[in-house]
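Ticket #4471: structure export looks truncated?
Reporter: QA, pipeline team
Priority: medium

Steps to reproduce: submit the single chain below to the structure queue and open the exported record.
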Amino acid sequence: MPKRILTEAAAWIWPEELVAIDSAPRTTVRRQGVRRQRRFLIAGCVLLVGIVYLAFTVTKASAVYYLTVPELEAHGTSGQQRSVRVSGIVDAGSIERDPSQFVTRFTASDAGGTLPVVYKGPVPDIFQPGIQVVVEGRLGTDGVFHADTLLTKCPAHFQAATPQTGQR
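Actual output as written to the record:
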């Protein structure tokens, strides 16, 4: 019995250097089992590292927060080097459309700043003056924001219904 306990302990600690104390074929089976466990453990670790890496890169790539117009102006030329999202409200009378080229020009303003925007593509149905927009793109050297994406935020028109007299 003590030989078997020593053999099992040695198999877990030093599986490659295990010297069979008793020459029973169980030692070979146990050694193969330890190798199989080690392979599964290594494969599991590699799989886990791969999943964590993919989750991190996907999250990092899609984590683009939007800036306000004054924040973009404070960033200066860094807005020209990378794609950013900017939030603002469409100014009244600033919308100019060229339907032949699908180009829309407008200005978006926020507390303390105004940003001229050029967007090429289909415009959402609720796009109008006074609506809040989020544009994604790059700031040009001419100070005009060239948007690749135009998102509009739906205004909230939901109000709680007030019961009228005589209704429950």
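Status: closed, not a bug. The export was complete when the record was re-opened. Leaving a note from the reviewer for reference: Residues 26-62 form the longest helix (37 residues).
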